[in-house]
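Deviations from the work plan: none for this task. Representative record:
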Amino acid sequence: MINKVVSGADEAIRDIAEGDTLMLGGFGLCGIPENCINALVKKGVKELTCISNNAGIDDFGIGLLLKTRQVKKMISSYVGENSEFERQLLSGELEVELIPQGTLATRCLAAGYGMPAIFTPAGVGTEVAEGKETRSFNGKEYLMEYAFEADFALVKAWKGDTAGNLIFRSTSRNFNPVMATAGKITIAEVEHLVEAGELDPDQIHTPGVYVHRIFQGEHYEKRIEKRTVRPKE
Amino acid sequence: MLDKDGIARRIAKEIKDGYYVNLGIGIPTLVANYIPANLQVVLQSENGLLGMGPFPFEGEEDADLINAGKQTITTLPGSSIFDSALSFGMIRSQKIDLTILGAMEVSENGDIANWKIPGKMVKGMGGAMDLVASAKNIIVAMQHINKAGESKLLPKCTLPLTGVKCIKKVVTELAVLDILPEGGFKLLERAPGVSVAYIRSATLGKLYASDDVPEMQLD
């Protein structure tokens, strides 16, 4: 097997450079690459374009990169939980492209499947469609949306092996497997890194061929955005 | 006039046995509380879950298990988890029977606006544009009039659109209305104690209403 293991987040992100386009997995704060984000803050690399469904909150996740003004442009579907983001957007300091969530996911998927574009009905007749090619299939109109091109994809998995195979846990799967397939270089941080052979091949969500670097992350905070519970009966 | 729970209770009556249902954030989330226990219904959460269960017991919350509103939840026997691309695949290919979502404005030809107020508020569309563009059966849960007392059921939406000609049914604190294929709101039911005249005054879009529109039954 080809060994994909690197020592940690700093080594994994060592060549992310000013102006690069990154994909970051996660939905809300669930399944985000915490270690990679912290390492990017430490490295201080600027002018990043970030493709991520959400933008974190003010003091966690991508919110940390926004606070340090390392992000030039965000491509997201929903950013309602981050007041600093909304402020930078409304003041024009931050470039933002808001796109439908399914379009975001499927543009990642197209990249990982080697397809240049998709057709989706989402956004037809809205400002999302402005300047985009449309086509009619069976009497219904669709927008052509291009596969994403990302220099790096940063994903978080539950378990991974030294060969780069990944298994995700619960709804922290979300965008991670599709983004993992879509980066020119994919970096996976995992809670548990095991030897090749320890994971059941039938249970693997992302095959190692898509993963270029893998490391076991440290101190996962896994912050909960909205803690909702019911009392014990 | 209904409160938010009243709107949710009335919408729950539209859910049929065997339905896969996607509930949006806000009033739609409350609908889950009123689905009759004798119906087999599966709730989809578009971040990647079919079979959304109730909130976890205190102390059992799991940061890896949330719904599309980022709330901690649970799974149920028969639940499944998948990635976001497949989640929208099942939405686009119309495997989800009913979609319930909120709106800031709805127009008499079925357009909906719910994601942006230019210059003031930008939260993003999330999955709403995908849902309204593909779902075969959409119910909008919304307030009939805004805080300033203005109608949100309009001849034409004033806010940036989420989808065009896609909404067929609206449930508000005042009424249940269909949107007719040729355009216009058709009043089907009145909220308890609300007159047709009042609904007419609260609806800026074209309204078709007979004099004997029934009051809605909530139970």
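The first helix of chain A runs from residue 9 to 12.
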